[in-house]
């Protein structure tokens, strides 16, 4: 049985995905969930805690999961992007956009920045971890893919101060959020939007990830398409 390691940057992503995948939490240095085949860890913004992963053996497949900002103007909040950095064909999967995800060294916050990055890279979305997780997978000779739900569209702005509301381990800084809202209460809308994106897209990512793992990708075996009601009707079908 092969081992699959799923990574997220922040704790709310990991918690939502662990619930959707029915993974039990395991005592470890980092927030960590595991069953016989699948492990899930929260590695912090830009993978700051990747070196602390409690691995008993190298994974055979590494998945970077979570939310990301859209670069393509065609994407909407709730869409799911799959970036598979392996030439092997993918099994039949519904409800996804397939294309590259750009890894930025800082938060991309304005529509102008997103537009420029889309023009220069042609990537569909942007995060701060995919390339770092890919390098980790290469180091361990593991297959790699990224699955990201869109939290903000290409024409939507993000406050750069939002990054300060998460510590280096990916844990929410509750007091910092309260302090920000005390001074800028209108930011509650943006915080709720990000929370809703995480809550809604992690189960969708789990529903895509489960048959992908079952297929044996990148050594895929054909899968029957799921019945029409197998996935949430809130996601567009492709």
Care to give the gist of this entry?
By secondary structure, this protein is α/β, with parallel strands linked by helices. It has helices at residues 11-21, 111-121, 130-139, 174-183, 188-214; strands at 4-8, 32-34, 38-42, 61-70, 80-84, 97-98, 101-103, 125-127, 143-152. It is globular.
Features of the shown structure:
238 residues, alpha/beta, Rossmann fold, 29% helix, globular
Account of the protein in words:
36% of the residues are buried. Helix 1 (11-21) crosses helix 5. Helices cover 29% and strands 19% of the residues. With 238 residues, it is an alpha/beta fold. It has one domain (4-219): 3-Layer(aba) Sandwich (Rossmann fold). It starts with a strand and ends in a 24-residue tail after the last helix. The chain is built from five helices and nine strands, in the order βαββββββαβαβαα. The protein has helices at 11-21, 111-121, 130-139, 174-183, 188-214; strands at 4-8, 32-34, 38-42, 61-70, 80-84, 97-98, 101-103, 125-127, 143-152.
Give the overall form.
globular
Structural class: alpha/beta
Biggest β-sheet: count, sense, barrel? 9 strands, mixed
Helix content: 25-40%
Mean pLDDT: 85
What is the H-and-E element order?
EHEEEEEEHEHEHH
Figure out the total of helices. Answer: 5
Strand runs, count: 9
Top-tier CATH class: Alpha Beta
CATH architecture identity:
3-Layer(aba) Sandwich
N-to-C CA distance:
31 Å
Strand content: 15-25%
């Amino acid at each position: 049985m092969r081992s699959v390691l799923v990574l997220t940057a922040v704790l709310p992503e990991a918690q939502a995905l662990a619930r959707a995948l029915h993974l039990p939490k395991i005592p470890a240095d980092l927030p960590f969930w595991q069953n016989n085949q699948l492990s899930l860890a929260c590695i912090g913004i830009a993978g700051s805690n990747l070196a602390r992963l409690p691995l008993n053996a190298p994974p055979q497949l590494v998945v970077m999961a979570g939310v990301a900002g859209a670069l393509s103007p065609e994407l909407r909040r709730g869409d799911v992007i799959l970036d598979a950095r392996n030439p092997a064909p993918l099994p039949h999967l519904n409800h996804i956009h397939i294309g590259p995800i750009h890894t930025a060294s800082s938060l991309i916050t304005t529509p102008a920045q997103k537009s420029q990055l889309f023009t220069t890279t042609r990537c569909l979305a942007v995060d701060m971890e995919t390339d770092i997780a890919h390098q980790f997978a290469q180091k361990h000779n593991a297959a790699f893919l990224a699955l990201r739900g869109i939290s903000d569209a290409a024409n939507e702005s993000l406050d750069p101060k939002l990054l300060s509301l998460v510590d280096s381990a990916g844990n929410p800084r509750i007091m910092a959020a309260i302090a920000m809202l005390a001074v800028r209460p209108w930011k509650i809308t943006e915080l709720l939007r990000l929370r809703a994106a995480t809550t809604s897209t992690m189960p969708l990512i789990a529903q895509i990830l489960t048959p992908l793992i079952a297929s044996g990708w990148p050594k895929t075996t054909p899968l029957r398409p799921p019945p029409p009601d197998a996935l949430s009707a809130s996601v567009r079908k492709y």
